[in-house]
């Protein structure tokens, strides 16, 4: 007589999760955004490092900085400038992308599909869940833009006499220092506010795109107003003084010896330009400008204003959520 013996089945023990609670929920729910941002950060950082090294090798091969930029090959300089400008343009898309694809659907998608109601009816308080959502999104923006902006600033400072003269232009000013991070935090916060109010993801993304684009256009006009420009007068029809090299020109005038200013086009269309200027006493060309040493102050001033605006938008979300439950 034979007996059947059963061999006990060995159960696999599940590996403990490294993330628990709301941290695991945020990483799980937003894993697509997390993976995309990680990939863009790694690839973007590697590309900036490579392009910086390649650009410096090219410039050093032509004798720079021992030789002045005027003696370098113009075609090579144009190619290097185009490469840098393309990198700046790609970075310039980040604030709007964060606002549209991360900020706008962050809460509106949960509201639209009632996920927020499901989560907050469990053991998790509504405010705690909301703080985790905001912290995850804004933290992701902070880390990604902080890394890329730091590397791009490192690149620009090494080659700025060659690739871009007007550093007050958005291609440089908005992508170096703290400005890229502050802009991205603001547009992301704007998207979160719009999504909270609209409660529909696609509608919120569309409105955020329009609102972010309008804000970025308006911000261009306020950039020269972040500080007080310097003024320098020099004799008319002479070479530009060396002190005005590597500066960001804000405005240009013609003036008298006593300091009275006229518009740059004064007497230009007159049949006797010199006689017209002599009659008015115009002898100087006058520049209003920002020096390169003012760049950091202007950037931190602009970033501070953007961070205050971001904090106000986040406070609005918290107030709205407290007054009007999901």
* Helix/strand/pairing category: alpha+beta
* First and last CA, distance: 69 Å
Give the low-pLDDT segments. none
> What order do the strands of the largest sheet run in, or round the barrel if closed?
1-4-2-3
Q: In oligomeric terms, what are we looking at?
A: single chain
Would you count the extended β strands for me? 4
Main sheet overview:
4 strands, antiparallel
What is the rounded Rg? 28 Å
Q: What is the arithmetic mean of pLDDT?
A: 88
Q: Helix count?
A: 11
Describe the protein in words.
- The chain has 326 residues and is α+β, with helices and mostly antiparallel strands.
- The chain has 2 domains: 21-227 and 294-323; 230-292, no CATH class.
- Helices cover 63% and strands 8% of the residues.
- The protein is built from 11 helices and 4 strands, in the order H-H-H-H-H-H-H-H-H-E-E-E-H-E-H.
- The chain has helices at 21-29, 31-61, 74-92, 94-112, 115-120, 126-163, 170-173, 179-198, 201-222, 273-280, 295-323, and strands at 230-235, 248-256, 261-263, 282-290.
- It has a 4-stranded antiparallel sheet.
- The mean pLDDT is 88.
Structure keywords:
single chain, 326 residues, alpha+beta, 2 domains, 4-stranded antiparallel sheet, 11 helices
């Amino acid at each position: 007589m034979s007996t059947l013996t059963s061999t006990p089945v060995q159960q696999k023990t599940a590996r403990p999760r490294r993330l628990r609670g709301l941290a695991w929920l945020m990483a799980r729910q937003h894993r697509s955004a997390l993976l995309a941002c990680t990939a863009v950060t790694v690839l973007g950082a590697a590309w900036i490092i490579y392009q910086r090294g390649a650009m410096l090798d090219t410039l050093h091969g032509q004798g720079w900085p021992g030789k002045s930029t005027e003696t370098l090959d113009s075609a090579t300089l144009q190619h290097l400038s185009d490469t840098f400008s393309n990198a700046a343009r790609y970075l310039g898309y980040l604030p709007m992308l964060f606002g549209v694809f991360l900020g706008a659907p962050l809460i509106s998608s949960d509201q639209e599909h009632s996920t927020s109601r499901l989560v907050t009816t469990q053991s998790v308080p509504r405010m705690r869940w909301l703080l985790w959502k905001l912290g995850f999104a804004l933290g992701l923006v902070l880390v990604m833009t902080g890394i890329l902006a730091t590397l791009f600033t490192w690149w620009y400072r090494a080659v700025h006499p060659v690739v871009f003269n007007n550093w007050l232009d958005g291609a440089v000013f908005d992508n170096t220092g703290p400005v890229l991070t502050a802009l991205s935090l603001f547009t992301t916060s704007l998207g979160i506010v719009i999504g909270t109010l609209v409660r529909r993801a696609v509608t919120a993304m569309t409105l955020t795109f329009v609102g972010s684009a309008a804000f970025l256009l308006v911000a261009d006009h306020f950039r020269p107003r972040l500080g007080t420009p310097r003024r320098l007068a020099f004799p008319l029809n002479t070479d530009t003084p060396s002190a005005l090299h590597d500066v960001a020109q804000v405005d240009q005038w013609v003036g008298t010896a006593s300091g009275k200013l006229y518009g740059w086009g004064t007497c230009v269309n007159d049949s006797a330009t010199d006689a017209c200027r002599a009659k008015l006493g115009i002898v100087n060309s006058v520049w209003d400008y920002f020096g390169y040493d003012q760049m950091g102050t202007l950037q931190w001033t602009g970033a501070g204003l953007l961070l205050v605006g971001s904090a106000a938008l986040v406070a609005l979300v918290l107030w709205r959520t407290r007054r009007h439950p999901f």
